[in-house]
């Protein structure tokens, strides 16, 4: 499976010690240099070490973008989101991991399949890799400063059968 990621679906699980969920699910995850730079600036020391180890191990791969004109995205996004969407299009990714609402919307308008950190937690729970999603969302909030909309949380927990 060809997978590309933006920053948040890597940095947040790394910060709470759950980056292995992505490694177990995907053989490799590609990130553009802009995302690699954002991950290198991660303020969570243990999370940053986990990301560095993932790159060192070779399953988190920094991939260069082809030198082509910028994509006509429907609205402005930050550099990491633009680069991740562009790489996903160039790489013909099966899925783009992206958490931000506008980024997900732009990716869908570019005909990309999207997933995010919360959906990956649901998959991990259903696969038996974690006991529940509720505690993981709490940890993401407390330890990583991850924002979860109440309506999104209800939906995710219903998908996790919690």
Structure characterization notes:
With 162 residues, the chain is mainly α. It has 9 helices and 5 strands. The protein has helices spanning 8-15, 20-25, 33-40, 45-57, 79-91, 101-109, 117-126, 134-144, 150-159, and strands at 3-5, 29-31, 60-62, 95-97, 114-115. The chain has a 3-stranded parallel sheet, sandwiched between helices. It has a two-stranded parallel ribbon with strand order 2-3. Helix 1 packs across helix 4 and helix 3 crosses helix 5 (79-91). The longest helix is centred in the first third of the chain and has 13 residues, at 45-57. The two termini are 28 Å apart.
Write the layout of secondary structure elements.
Blueprint: E1 3-5, H1 8-15, H2 20-25, E2 29-31, H3 33-40, H4 45-57, E3 60-62, H5 79-91, E4 95-97, H6 101-109, E5 114-115, H7 117-126, H8 134-144, H9 150-159
Parallel strand pairs: 1-4, 2-3, 4-5
In short:
Helices cover 54% and strands 9% of the residues. With 162 residues, the chain is mainly α.
**Strand line-up of the largest beta sheet:** 1-4-5
CATH topology annotation: Rossmann fold
Radius of gyration: 15 Å
Low-confidence stretches: none
User: Could you name the CATH homologous superfamily?
Assistant: 5'-nuclease
Domain module tally: 1
Q: Please identify the structural class as seen in this structure.
A: mainly alpha
Q: What's the total count of β strands?
A: 5
Order of SSEs, N→C?
Answer: EHHEHHEHEHEHHH
Number of helices: 9
Helix content: 40-55%
Principal-axes geometry comes out as globular
Strand content: 5-15%
Label the CATH architecture: 3-Layer(aba) Sandwich
Q: What's the main sheet like?
A: 3 strands, parallel
The chain-level mean pLDDT equals 95
CATH domain class: Alpha Beta
Distance between the termini: 28 Å
């Amino acid at each position: 499976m060809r997978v590309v990621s933006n920053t948040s679906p890597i940095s947040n699980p790394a910060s709470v010690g759950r980056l292995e969920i992505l490694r177990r699910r995907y053989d490799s995850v590609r990130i553009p240099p802009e995302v690699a730079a954002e991950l290198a600036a991660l303020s969570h020391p243990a999370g940053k070490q986990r990301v560095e180890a993932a790159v060192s191990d070779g399953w988190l791969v920094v991939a260069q973008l082809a030198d082509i004109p910028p994509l006509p995205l429907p609205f402005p996004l930050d550099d990491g989101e633009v680069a991740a969407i562009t790489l996903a299009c160039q790489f013909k990714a099966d899925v783009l991991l992206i958490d931000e609402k506008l980024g997900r919307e732009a990716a869908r308008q570019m005909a990309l399949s999207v997933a995010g950190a919360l959906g990956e937690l649901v998959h991990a729970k259903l696969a038996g890799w974690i006991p529940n999603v509720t505690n993981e969302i709490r940890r993401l909030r407390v330890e990583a400063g991850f924002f979860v909309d109440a309506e999104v949380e209800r939906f995710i927990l219903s998908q996790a059968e919690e």
